[in-house]
Amino acid sequence: MDRATEGLTGPQSVDPPGEPVANGADPTAPLLDRCAFPPAGTAVDCAVSGGPDSTALLVLAVAAGLEVTCWTVDHGLRSTSADEVRLVAHNALSLGVPTVTVDGLVVDGPDLEQRARDVRRAALPGGVLTGHTADDQAETVLLNLLRGAGVPGTAGIGEPDRRPLLALRRAETRGLCTALGLRVVDDPSNDDPRFTRNRVRHEVLPLLADVAGRDPVPLLARHATLAGEATGLLAGLVVDVDPADVRSVADLPDDLVRLAVRRWLTVQVTGPIAGRPTGPPPDQASVDRVLDVVRGRVVATEVAGGHRVRRSAGFLVFESR
Predict the structure, then answer these.
(1) Half-sphere exposure (CA, 13 Å, Cβ side) for 131?
(2) What CATH number did the domain enclosing 114 receive?
(3) What is the share, in percent, of the chain residues with pLDDT greater than 90?
(4) What is the pTM of this model?
């Protein structure tokens, strides 16, 4: 249920306000040139959790001259969630931006991150902008490598056109909020080691930096850009290939059929909801198993996520979990 939110009643899980800029300098100016916002005057929706990244997204979208609507999803996971929602609305109001809050309750437990993401994707409008940064991009590249997601996985976060802050660093978004005196939500789940992303963030990336003697984030972010270009080129090779019709690909080499299977499987597994994917690209092992079904080596197989693909009357059938 959508509900307008206004006011603020002392949120408990937020950082204290920073000191506003005293010399009159515009702290958004050095960041905007590295952002990828649409032209001024464009109407956009921004997903804002209240953390520094999404709060900076809101600030920078306004500074870019966009007509902004702030969207926030209340998962009800913490006793302070209502206060955090009010903080988002308060910050948006200070920027002259209306806020829409959606109740999207999620119960703690297994697959919490994925379930919360699914709720947000279903609740937020299509094309909504998010505050993902270069640090998020680097983490996603490593996570997808660990999943065995191949070249498409190392392209990092999908739909880069919805991620205007991908060239910025997490320290810069927090610094912007501090410079403007904006309070932000400090989400304790970002430090919870039960989530693999947090271990990559707090353990793997610092270790890589120590081993390499340099910051790995720009390198991984650059790799994501190159892998995205390669993925686009590869997708063009099979744009007219339908692996679900197994007879139509009988004479094609396995390498091309794998590319077509990956594209087909991505659509089947990940959605879409509101026209956009709802999960990461399929892992290579799942692609290879579906290729075995296409070639008739097996009748059916399971793929990542507990789904099933079988062959029937010369066509692939996808059975969702």
Answers:
(1) 25
(2) 3.40.50.620
(3) 64
(4) 0.81
